[in-house]
Each structure stands twice: as C-alpha cells, then as structure tokens.
C-alpha cells in the first residue's frame, strides 16, 4: 500500500490557541473565519476510484489550498477497508456513496460529510449480459441480477429503475456478489444483468453484446458520491475540513477543463482502454456544499431508503453534515 505525505511547517498562529475553545463548540459550522485546527494533519484513506479526494493528492495546488494543514494520503483502499481505517482511528477522511453514508449514520456510526461530488447519474445503471435475451427492464422478471450488497448503490439503482417498469423488485432474483467476480459472471451466463456503477458499470457496458437497460438519468436519482471525515476530526479541526473542501472544488474545476484527470486515474488503477474510453463518456462530477439544497437531496434519498426497507428510520442528516460553502 502506497503512502503520500505533504507537510506544512508554518508557525502556529496565536489566534488559533485563543479561539480553540469556541471552535470546538461550533464545529458543525464549517464556514467559521477562525483558524483553529488549521495546523492539523488530515489522514486521507483514498480509494481506487477517480473521485476527487483520490485524484487531488497529485495536484500541485494542494499545498497552497490546504495552508498549514498537513495531509497524509494512504491507499488505495477498497471501500470496506477505508471505512475501517477511519473508524479504527488510523485515518480521518475517505469517500463513499450517499447511500452508504445514509446507511452508516442510520446505524449510529460517527461520520460527518463535508462535500457532495455530484453527477447526472449516467455512471450508474443496469446492463443486460450478452446472450441473456434481456432487452428491457420488463424482461428482468425471474432473472438473476447481480449487485454488490443489499442496500448499496446497485440495490438502490435496481429499486429506482424498476419503479417505472412492469416488474417488482421482489420478482427479480437478486444476487449479491463481489465486484471482482462481476465480469466473469457477466460474460459466462451466470447472471442475466448487472446493477452497478463507475468502473464496474463501464466494464459491463464495454462488453460486446451487452445492453444498457437504464441509468440514473432515466429516473429521479439522488445517489451520488460524498466525502466524509470522522466526527471527532470534524469537531476538533473544522478549518482543516473546510480547506479540503476548497481543494476538492479546485480539483472539480480542473477536471471540468481536463477530464483526462479522471480517465488517467482509472488507467493508473488498471482499467483497460475499452473501460477508460467508456468512462470518458460519463458525466464529469462537480463538488457541491452540503447546504440546504444538499441536505434536502440527502434527506430525499434517506426517505427512499426507508421506503425500500434499507433502513428503519430517517437519520439526522443535519447533525452529520457540514456546510463548507457558507
């Protein structure tokens, strides 16, 4: 596992010590003008996907944007290991999908989200396997559809896409499967379709004979990417979190001008040219604050998660988010 460190050795401002107590009480308001926490070290467990918390680690502007905050990157992690690293105290920040974040806080896990990575939804969807004979969503009745896990993005996509079809989710044979087995199962006839996202979706779409049945642009999609820190770090170092938000905004602006930032990252992580070329057609994400509109989007998805039976009750979104755009 590789590790990247960026160190800042600027002197601590006297104002930071003077204001520390007040900031600890107001950590949820990321837009404070005080400087306490600026000289913190944020340990980022980055994923092997091209989200902006992963790609920003190589940007020359990161040191300038973070100011006196140190950033240590370790990874790449798979999502499960990244979450465990933060929860065990070995890292402070990572990334996930908004659905997983909702599941985490519904379980009472101590996370704080600080940035939404928004895209139009065309990087998540359902693809019929070659030779399956599946031509539409209605053909999925009684068929095997693979997802990574119940309540995850693939499960969400399946529920949302089937809402407008003649098939109920209960009529589908949903198969939980490790993504490392997706492509073999998809091409060998073990499954009839795949409901997934990102590189897994691109690999399925690039398979000769496969057919895209639906993507997130075809329904009212609320599931996007989100960047999160431990609640303890957010409480102690709100200015460090705000600085990282600003860095992600700059990375978003850079990718809008040069989308190869995204496809180059996937190639670095081992994506084939066929998969990278498919990913190049996906929407380039934008970083948004978790302001009133951002919270409303998360709350709408949380209500869907209750309706789908993924969680029992609505979690407190406001208590688990920071508005870094204020």
TrEMBL record:
InterPro entries (alphabetical): SsuA/THI5 (IPR015168)
Location of the SsuA/THI5-like domain: 71-259
Keyword check for tRNA-binding: no
Key words, A-Z: Signal
GO process terms (BP): alkanesulfonate transmembrane transport
Localization, UniProt: Periplasm
Domain of life according to the entry: Bacteria
Gene Ontology CC annotations of this record: periplasmic space
Cleavable signal peptide: 1-36
Primary site of residence: periplasm
Stated family: Belongs to the bacterial solute-binding protein SsuA/TauA family.
Protein name from the UniProt record: ABC transporter substrate-binding protein
Organism, as annotated: Bifidobacterium italicum
Highest classification ranks of the organism: Bacteria, Bacillati, Actinomycetota, Actinomycetes, Bifidobacteriales
